[in-house]
């Protein structure tokens, strides 16, 4: 069971620079929620100081942006003034990547709809446009 | 001395390319490439493990048409098996691997040494990127068992690709080359040696790619990947950004004379870089790879 816990924790670190910083500050506390033995805890404690963990975090974010950009590129352009903090917040709320792009996008749009105050104006129209863009992408995929 | 040949009855294919929609006009020209390497996961919609077995996987017709029209030999290169995951094997995915290999008469199937699927409560979810596990004995045992299972289900040779890794676990039970050698020996699999991944790791972690080749049991190598990469936050990443850099060609030149079971050299590049390299640039890479191929043993 420990190996599964290690892999979940390692993936969690790649998904969250904030968790990496927390592990740097207090490894035992930050990783207490994962089933890790002493060797695994030590490995991850050392891993967060490696430059490669920064690369993993960047690759994770690139992967998640690419999923949204493949389905709703025009919406992302409309969100551009607030996109970076929005994505940071979204990924903190939903750290597990949904590999099915349409589902990931639908989840993102539903999340956007809960926080209109953080979106550029006109927020309601942007969310409605996002839903239409997703619908067009899904229709295109099923007919392609 | 040549070791056991993990490629079985598969033919020597020559030089091929990783298939994508942007390349269809190039790959469709007679003689442009000798085969297509196909990532089947890009050619189907996967509705996920909770979908009904009848409808979980569905073709994306415009992508599948590329394979129909090319009419070239094919090998399957998967990204969804998650061979090093410490969670139960996704049996429906393995069944789909087998069905795809049979449908397209894939000469072999391959997957990366990585985990993508992780445990989330009682279910599986995804890490969001492929991560390389430590080169430990228990990871090896897990991957060997999963590879044997895939071989039994697909009835095709199985190849494991060495992955790029950005974090290292220097207290691993085994060295990387040792891990790959044991994996091939214990599972009956071959190696898909990605020379650009090797180059990435050599650059990022300060070792010689050529010495790494010395440590590998090269009789296991059935397919080679060549590619290019780019800078990523002070590291060098496997981004498939165009024609391979000279050190990758040097590794290929070093390898072809001592990999007796080599059957294929695949050029991988991401279709978003096509405007930079163009079809002429792709053709130059294929021609240079064919020159290396002509010097194989």
List the helices and strands and how they pair.
The complex is a heterodimer of chains A (144) and B (297).
Chain A: H1 2-15, H2 17-25, H3 27-30, H4 38-47, H5 51-71, H6 73-79, H7 83-93, H8 101-112, H9 123-143
Chain B: E1 14-18, H1 24-27, E2 35-38, E3 44-46, E4 57-59, H2 61-70, E5 74-77, H3 91-104, E6 109-112, E7 115-120, E8 123-131, H4 137-154, E9 158-161, H5 176-187, E10 190-194, H6 195-205, H7 209-215, E11 221-226, E12 230-232, E13 235-237, H8 246-256, E14 264-267, H9 274-294
Parallel strand pairs in B: 1-2, 1-14, 2-5, 5-6, 6-9, 9-10, 10-11, 11-14
Antiparallel strand pairs in B: 3-4, 7-8, 12-13
Helix pairs in contact in B: 4-5
Description:
The complex is a heterodimer of chains A (144) and B (297). Chain A has helices spanning 2-15, 17-25, 27-30, 38-47, 51-71, 73-79, 83-93, 101-112, 123-143. Chain A is mainly alpha-helical and 144 residues long. Chain A folds into 2 domains: 2-49, no CATH class; 54-143. Chain A starts with a helix and ends with a helix. Chain B has one domain (15-278): Divalent-metal-dependent TIM barrel enzymes (TIM Barrel, Alpha-Beta Barrel), CATH 3.20.20. Chain B has helices spanning 24-27, 61-70, 91-104, 137-154, 176-187, 195-205, 209-215, 246-256, 274-294; strands spanning 14-18, 35-38, 44-46, 57-59, 74-77, 109-112, 115-120, 123-131, 158-161, 190-194, 221-226, 230-232, 235-237, 264-267. In chain B, helix 4 packs parallel to helix 5 (176-187). The model of chain B has no long low-confidence stretch (mean pLDDT 93). The interface between A and B is medium-sized, with 32 and 38 residues.
């Amino acid at each position: 069971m420990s190996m599964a816990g290690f892999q979940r924790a390692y993936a969690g670190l790649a998904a969250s620079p904030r968790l990496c910083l927390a592990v740097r500050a207090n490894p035992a506390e930050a990783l207490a929620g994962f089933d890790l033995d002493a060797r695994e805890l030590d490995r991850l404690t050392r891993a967060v100081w490696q430059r490669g963990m920064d690369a993993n975090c960047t690759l994770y974010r690139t992967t998640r942006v690419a999923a949204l950009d493949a389905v709703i590129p025009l919406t992302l352009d409309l969100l551009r003034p607030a996109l970076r903090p929005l994505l940071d917040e979204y990924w903190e709320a939903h750290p597990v990547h949904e590999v099915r792009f349409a589902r990931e996008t639908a989840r993102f749009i539903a999340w956007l709809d809960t926080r209109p105050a953080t979106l550029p104006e006109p927020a309601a129209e942007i969310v409605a446009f996002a839903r239409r863009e997703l619908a067009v992408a899904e229709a295109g995929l099923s007919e392609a | 001395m040549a070791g056991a040949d993990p490629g079985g009855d598969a033919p020597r294919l020559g030089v091929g390319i990783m298939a994508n929609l942007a390349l269809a006009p190039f790959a469709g020209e007679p003689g442009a490439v000798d085969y297509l390497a196909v990532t089947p996961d890009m050619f189907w919609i996967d509705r996920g493990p909770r979908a009904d077995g009848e409808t979980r996987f569905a073709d994306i017709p415009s992508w599948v048409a590329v394979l129909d029209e090319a009419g070239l030999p094919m090998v399957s290169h998967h990204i969804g098996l998650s061979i090093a995951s410490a969670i139960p094997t996704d049996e429906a995915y393995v069944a789909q691997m087998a069905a795809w290999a049979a449908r397209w008469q894939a000469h072999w199937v391959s997957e990366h040494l990585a985990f993508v699927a992780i445990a989330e409560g009682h279910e599986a979810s995804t890490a969001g990127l492929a991560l390389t596990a430590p080169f430990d004995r228990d990871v090896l045992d897990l991957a060997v068992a999963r590879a044997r299972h895939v071989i039994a289900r697909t009835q095709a040779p199985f190849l494991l690709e060495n992955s790029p890794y950005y974090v290292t676990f220097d207290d691993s039970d085994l060295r990387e080359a040792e891990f790959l050698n044991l994996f091939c020996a214990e599972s009956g699999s071959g190696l898909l040696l990605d020379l650009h991944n090797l180059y990435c790791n050599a650059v990022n972690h300060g070792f010689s790619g050529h010495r790494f080749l010395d440590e590998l049991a090269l009789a296991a190598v059935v397919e080679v990947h060549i590619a290019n990469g780019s800078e990523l936050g002070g590291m060098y990443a496997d981004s498939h950004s165009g024609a391979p850099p000279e050190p990758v060609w040097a590794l290929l030149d070093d390898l072809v004379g001592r990999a007796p079971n080599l059957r294929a050299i695949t050029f991988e590049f991401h279709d978003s870089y096509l405007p930079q390299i163009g079809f002429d640039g792709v053709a130059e890479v294929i021609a240079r790879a064919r020159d290396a191929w002509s010097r194989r043993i």
